[in-house]
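target protein:
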Amino acid sequence: MATAKGAAFLCFSTLCVILWSSRPVFAQTKPAFACDIEANPSLKNFRFCDTSLDVKFRVDDLVKRLTLQEKIGWIVNTAKGVSRLGIPDYQWWSEILHGISFIGPGSKFMGTVPAATSFPQVILTAATFNVSLFEAVGKAVSTEARAMYNEGLAGLTFWSPNVNIYRDPRWGRGQETPGEDPLLTSRYGAAYVRGLQQRDDGDKEKLKIAACCKHYTAYDLEDWKGFRRYNFNALVSQQDLDDTFNPPFKSCVLDGNVASVMCSYNQINGRPTCGDRDLLYGVIRGKWKLNGSVCIYCDSIHEMFNSQKLRETPEETAALALNAGLDLNCGSSLTNFTQGAVDRGLVNETVISRAVSNNFATMMRLGFFDGNPKNHLYGNLGAKDICTTPTREFAREVARQGFVLLKNTEGSLPLSSTAIKSLAVIGPNAAATEAMLGSYFGVPCKYTSPLEAIKASVSSVLYQPGCADVWCATPQVEDAKRISSEADAVVLIMGLNQNIEAEALDRMNVTLPGQQELLITEVAKVCKGPLILVIMSGGSLDIQFAKDNPKVCSILWVGYPGEAGGAAIADVLFGLYNPGGRLPMTWYPQSYVDMVNMSNMNFRPNPATGFPGRTYRFYKGKTVYPFGYGLSYSAFSHHLIEAPEFVTMPLEEAHVCRTSTCKSIDAVEQYCKNLAFYIHLGVKNTGKFSGKETVFLFSSPPQVHNAPQKQLIEFEKLHLMPQEEGSVRFKIDICKHLSVVDETGKWKVALGQHILHVGSLKHSLNWSIVSVESFSARKGKKMGHRNSKHESSEEPTDGSSSEASRVQRLRLRLHRHSRRFRRYRRGTDSDSTAAKLLKEGEFAGIALLRIITAEMKFKDKWLACVTLGEQTFRTAISDHTDRPIWNSEKKLLLEKNGAHSARISVFETNRMSKNNLVGFCEIDLYDFLTRDSDSDVEVYDLLHVSSPTGVVGKISLSCFIEDYNEDGHLSFPEFSNLIDAFGNLLAANKKEDLFKAADENGDGVVSVDELAMLLAVEQEKDPLLTCCPVCGETLPVSDRLNSMIHLTLCFDEGTGNMVMTGGFLTDKQAVNGFQDQINLSEIKYPLEHFKTFNEFFIRELKAGSRPIANLECDNVAVCAADSRLTAFRTATDSMRFWIKGRKYSVKGLLGTEVCSDAFSAGSLVIFRLAPQDYHRFHVPVSGKIEKFVDIPGCLYTVNPIAVNSKYCNVFTENKRVVSLISTEDFGKVAFVAIGATMVGSITFLKKEGDYVKKGDEFGYFSFGGSTVICVFEKDTIKIDDDLLEKSERSLETLVSVGMKLGVSIKKGAYTEFPNVEACVIGE
């Protein structure tokens, strides 16, 4: 990684790799760690060894004990131990790009660990476009890294991943990157970092291993025509820096919480990246708030002095880097020159303390200062956990998912292993082993070459290498033609290797090396069956000749596929796997690189110079294959389900763009907050093979600020069976997804027409600005998705008290300018339209809604129910008639940016205590109040419940704005009317007291601010708005038990059919009610499938939406429900959960038939399901179901549906069923399902005697929020510490089905390996 001029530094030529792999090593009997109190008890007196203290306190304690020389010893990669403090030597430098590498002195393959799993090179993994897989790979390799550390053969800090943009196809290290697209690279970097760093116990402060995103920034040239990376001055525009080069690093820090960022060799615009305070301290630590250290490329300080000649002395150069924000040096420069820099006053010792503090903080988070790692999480890992069968098989799966099918003539691939009697295999990469690994490789567990795997698939294989090596200087054409003419089919495996593209080695062209093209062409002339061309390479190649040659039937790009690459190739060739990878980079023709200098860093084209631009985002010229290209053995179609056509941004009157023409608006939160919308796409597999489809969502913004011609804004991978249909729903954030960077580096949202692309589909989205007052709701393309609810963006952000925030919110809801419209005067025809709102910004205040009459299709008694947001009311019951007259009016609070879609439901009520929903209509009050009509009355169709196109009657309504008096204050009569409208009898009986309480200044009227204060205060005591959400009946606050009974009856005897406002779900309500709480894309059926709330509660999920932790290991218990979890070590601890004096015991919970002493003294976990949760529960452990026991009686539990509701009693008498599961690892486990009420139903999908596997679906609740409780026998489970810790602080933890709950004490801890099945959504 450094020049030959620095004798202590490495280059990565083949020779140096050999030298590193053959260098002498010395066995280490244990891992390096500090604070070994077991061996040296005196260390316990040091506060930095006290694990109960926070990291900062421990670091401060440690640093203040160090001398300057000791500090300097810990700002270099070969850190010097401090024996007097019990701190050993440590080597920071290890690599884990796609598996543990032998590059870097921190990792050694020897003794108990001769090898580790080698996954595909990054460019191929990126071609999967599968974010969950990116993270799973990180998790797998970090487990092996931890195991190697425990064996004393690796460290805990790894300098990976590489998130540079693959700017030019000739770059030798493009293979190490996720490709040319900033979004894909950002997603890969953050996901891989999470996989490497996140611990299985969920502790976000601690690290499994420490990752490092490199090389920051604009680094993508090795050695090209005299330009060398060590002194290359990259001339980069601020626009390119901020919209292309830097986003992956930003995502690493903000989304991945990476522990380190590495700066690069090169300069940017004359300033070295590792000596640029603006780039390091200003951006990484200042803007992005890096929680970790900034390290340096080996050995950049040496190159800054010797090659770049930035300072007169090495001490000045060292000071330049340290003062810029560097924390850790790879190499010896800081060891040699820091003391001198301090002595000369070039750098202050406080800067050294800052650097070493950042480094020690990382080591603290890794557990390096926590004593013997054997006593902590991952302490049980060792050699047995490296090169395991599941991990190696996972590497094979990753390769298969990444392969890109570039060409496939019908009838070519897949090959039939039975129909083909003889197969010719030709090419310099056919027998590849090490070449399959790519750069930064380690020692693989076992190679499977393509030739070896193909021989295992076909009875007769004829093999010729065709070339001596990939240079193919003298092709063996005749031998290759001979076997090709004899075989039923030919597989040519050609391409590149590390002798042609690698670190310190750029290509001069993008054609196949030597005479490879000749060999392919000649073989194609004589083959009698299909010819399959397999390209093994990291970079793109100009293979237009093969694409155009009809005798070349199929082309498959396999990247560098890792140790199992050969087996993966055979799987795809013979149809055991359907390829679904997509190209993460553009494949250019040779003519492109002939005209473009690699040293030109620009992305945007320049017509004046003829520069054509770079990557699919800016290059408009001819390509061999475009970014995102890839075929499948199947075919997929797309159709648009939902997408808005118009989106508007509200701007205040003072904004400059309100008075002058703007082409874009600053993409800042104050403008974009709550302006997200959804793109809903249908996907169908129209072919005969099951397969994976990557759905790309591209945007072409208006062409301002030299914006990209097209850019990827979202993607998702689906697995579909033949003829199966699925859907993808993207949530699009205006500022995040549709913004571009202007010429000065500022993010902007361009005004005008944005074109959205999905495959061949195109959809126009028009983006414009409006005044805040006339801010219009977005309209959906198909389902009428006009969002009827927006959160106010005017929330206080100054950290004020919760009461002040409440008051401010209510003030915003009520505030409006009384001068903007006149007061409605009842009975004054000439002024009948005076109360109409003029602009939506005025949609706030009090509206009078009147339900007048209806016409029904048969006679009965009727009532109507109105809902607006959380407000409800109902009319009186009409006479027995088909023309009910109600003339019922109520006042509604209209909230600024709040709900304005009201629902009127009509019930036939001529039954005992039963209301039967007959019809409904929805009214947009904003449209109603702004319509241009001479009449104040509108007639609406009442739609049939089960068939929204059917009409069961008509209903007449009117709506007006009730204004305050002209000065914007409420007199007592007006205040009295307002309280009556709230429907709270208790409040109505104390109106005078409330008026006095509100009128703080005693002026005899209540202002808007005073009313807001009253509502905020009273809402916390006895809510003023208290009524049944179904029928509108007033619920006395003082009689909570009867209120709960009333609600139970109103909810249609607990079946859920009458939940909330009439018992069924419309598209508009579902989208507006659930979109921010529920991931609709994981639901098995589309939204329109559900006709009732209850159907939605018990919705099914797509297969694989809830991965099960450690599926094959029964000694790990998992979470039973999507829920809020509270865990208790002992059942006694749980007593505090059952409050207000309710008598409770485990015996009462389980019943005498199930309960035992072991359960009474055991552990207990509560899963509380909220109404919006997935309402199916799953088995937490594997075992046999012994029995089900229905528990009658009156256990009062916390009712989940009531916890966050002002309508319901928190304590509810519940229906309960206890199932007893007998297990090998946990003994007996009692599984308690508790319905939301005594009449709520619980349906089990298993029966007594069934053997169940953890994660299996067990049953579902049919009503509201419910509860599951698992009781384990004493001393059988160790519940995860973080779950217990949060529960001890009375905090609930949001969990999903299948998440790890705890491990059997009998079996001990388990090492988790990636679940391949969980790596693809929907598979």
About this structure: The chain has 36 helices and 52 strands. The longest helix spans residues 131-150.
